[in-house]
Amino acid sequence: MEQETRLTESQPVPHDHAATPGTLRPGGRTAKVRRAVLDATQDALADTGFHALNMDRIAASAGVGKTTVYRRWGSPVGLVTDLLHDMAEQSLPAADTGGLTGDLRANAELVRDTLTDPRMGAVFRAVIAAAACDEECARALAAFYRTRLAEWAPVVTRAAARGEIPEGTDPVELLRAVSAPLYYRFTITHEELTGAVTERAVTAALAAARDGAFLRE
Fold first, then answer.
1. DSSP string, 41-78
2. Per CATH, is 91-210 categorized as 1.10.357.10?
3. Which CATH superfamily does the domain covering 15-76 fall into?
4. Residues 164-203 pLDDT 10s
5. Ranges of CATH 1.10.10.60 domains, the chain
6. Predicted confidence (pLDDT) per residue in 80-114, tens digit
7. DSSP 94
8. Cβ-based burial of 66 (10 A; exposed 0-12, middle 13-18, buried ≥19)
9. Residue 7 forms beta bridges with which residues?
10. pTM for the full model?
11. Coil/strand/helix, residue 142
């Protein structure tokens, strides 16, 4: 039985929901439990990475009964999956600077600021490592980026309407071209992500877009 001094959910989570973390948006005590557990998960990923993620330690750190954590999230993969859903929901909205150059620069700077942040950079490194070896984590990470790309897609659509780039430019492909060089340096070569790197990525992606490189087929 869970100790009364720990956070517990007011009602049990149905088994089918527990098998798919992040599909609920609970309120009240259940929301507090989820917030505490996801914060503890993020801390653990930043400190020790995915492979050291331990359900019992997450429960203790969050002040939540172990039974609740195992019932709702099931495994470390379930924790990471739900954390990614939460991160997508909490991400900042897209910029609207009035021009595509400014919007893409804001996007690139957001990516760079996230990856170079000591805490969030470590979290993303751990999540990317988890996705490389677990299919469920990979799907969750892909869903996270689909959500973020969809949030930023209107900046490309507006730019095409203003005549800055050709009509029919694929927003997702253009946005990927901006962030891809940053993630390459972050995950593969471990090079410093400087302002110059960010600006070069924006300039190259814009030039390609104006030449029609990202037109939908």
1. HHHHHHHH-GGG--HHHHHHHHTB-HHHHHHHH-SHHH
2. yes
3. Homeodomain-like (1.10.10.60)
4. 999 999 999 999 999 999 999 999 999 999 999 999 999 9
5. 15-76
6. 999 998 998 887 789 999 999 999 999 999 999 99
7. P
8. middle
9. 64
10. 0.81
11. helix
